[in-house]
Write a structure and sequence with these properties.
The protein has about 350 residues and is mainly β. About 5% of the residues lie in helices and about 45% in strands. It is built from three helices and 30 strands. The strands form eight sheets. Strands 11-12-13-14-30-24-23-18-21 form a nine-stranded antiparallel sheet. The chain has a six-stranded antiparallel sheet with strand order 17-28-25-22-19-20. A hairpin with a 3-residue loop joins strand 13 and strand 14. The longest helix has 5 residues. The protein is globular and about 55 Å long. It starts with a strand and ends with a strand.
Length: about 350
Amino acid sequence: MKLTTKYIGEKNGQIIYEYSIQNNQGLKFSCTNFGCIITKLIVPDREGRLENIVLGFDTIEEYEDNPHFIGAVIGQHAGRVAKGKILIDGKVIQLPCNEGGNQLHGGRNGFDKSIWNTTIMESKDEIVLQFEYTSVNGDTGFPGAVAAKVKYIFNNADELIVEYRGTCDQKTVLNMTNHSYFNLSGNLRRDISQHILKINSSHFLSLNDELLPTGSLEDVEGTVFDFRSERVIADGIHSANEQVIIAGQGYDHPFKLLKSSEYDVVLKDDKSGRQLSIITNNPYIVLYTGQKLGDGYLFGDIESKNYLGLCLETQLPPYSIEYDDLRESTLEKGDEYYKYTKYIFTTN
């Protein structure tokens, strides 16, 4: 295992570093203490060719202007908070909105825009980067001071394990995830339309035209949302399914996980042979197929386009005060929030 640290900039007098970990097989994981952003994941194809499988920018300035939340840890609340309203002890609290009349991914200055303190722990078979950040009471509208921790554990078993922890000095809401865009083709040589996906889920949350959950869990049976067996992404994004059309000709939906198989999610690219398997203790995963990435951005020398990457966001469900089961992210004073996601990189 090998760790390197590189200065990449400053913000508000705080230094921003990029940390890179290489394991004994040559796989490489890179991230920054700004937003805990994952900048690179370099893994082999079936021929052993090492290439990057996530979207990322070249400069910290591009990450500061990052409307698609590329690679970042999301908080205080991942997903959409309907109308920007949360309910705490019977009182409605209005959060500032940053996507029309709703709050998305923690608001304009969420965890993704914060500089985190870093602790490094090294051993023979793994290196751990622990990031810590405390948001003050009222930060982006949320009640309480939240002490958040994110651990990235990269190891010689070709796994990346992400652990999220948080406590608060008063009742609040907390729902964290990572917003990396995966593309297993290698160095973005193809879009993700021919990727093959399997999700261990029999139900998904349907959305309205604001991409807010309707409160209805829909059965995937007989629809392009049925990923219980392997399905090519193109099947859905090119379909006339009403929910796919609402999301902008793609997926942006929470799938409720069944927890009844070895992996919660498996993503494959047959041409490269790369496979990503995911295990999590989160109840949901949001599949977003990048249909709104659009033009105007460069990832290195590659121009952005729709479907260039897809997100697999393990999390609690989006928040709505209208539905009891969409308030799972409520965190009591003194309780600890703990979630993890394991990413396993293999070839087939």
